[in-house]
Amino acid sequence: MGRNLLQDPQLANLGTTVASYGQQLEDLRNEQQGLEYHYNNNSTLLEQQREELSLGLFACFARLEFHYYRDINQVADFYELKYFRRSNNGSSEESTEEEDYGLFEIDLAAESRSLQLEGLLRGGETIRITHLEGEAVKYYSAANANDIPAQIYELQPNQSVSLQLPAGHRLLFFDNPASQMAKVELELM
Asked: Mean pLDDT in the chain?
């Protein structure tokens, strides 16, 4: 349009102004496209570097696990338990997937004793225990596998309780004295 105005001698000044404004808009658009290219390119490079870093961290974690395989408590110190716990916000659909990390469904064999959440507990946590199937089961916490429990609790069918672990108790045991399988759900709070 500025070129058309330049052809008329009476509108030459206006044509010059419109042509220069059009050139400024074109230059700004080219600059914007360059910035978009750099942004996309940097985003791709950043994602590649993030993947490379995560692989390196995973390799380091695997080496540490291999080195300390006999000391599970030491291995538990290499990661943050909060990343395996249920988040409290629950506001988005994406957080629903993340919430399952603190929720465990456990099958207890008939007439058995089993240790659960080994390596995930530090002591002092609150655990919600829900009885899902089978007869009543017994449970208790301990600092070491050989400790005699101070208190043994009984969980009735369809009952849900919260257990506050004493400081230093990192082990959670379940006894299923019944002749059939039982199922419980554990949730780290």
From this structure: 82
Alpha carbon separation from 57 to 54, 80, 85, 120 (Å, rounded):
5, 14, 21, 20
* Of the listed ranges 85-94, 95-104, 140-149, the one predicted with least confidence: 85-94
pLDDT on residue 99: 44
0.85 exceeded by pTM: no
Nearest Cα neighbor of 188 from 72, 78, 100 is 100
Distance CA 155, CA 40 (A): 56
The beta strand positions in the chain, using DSSP E, are 103-108, 112-116, 126-133, 137-142, 153-155, 160-164, 171-176, 182-188
Would you say residue 98 lies in a domain? no
Dist. CA 25–CA 31, nearest whole Å: 10
| Boundaries of domain holding 8 | 1-83
Number of neighbouring beta carbons within 10 Å of residue 100: 10
Neighbouring CB atoms inside 10 A of 127's CB total 21
| 107 and 79 within one domain | no
Q: Which two tokens stand for residue 152?
A: 């043994």
| Residue 95 included in any domain | no
Is the pLDDT reported for residue 85 higher than 50? no
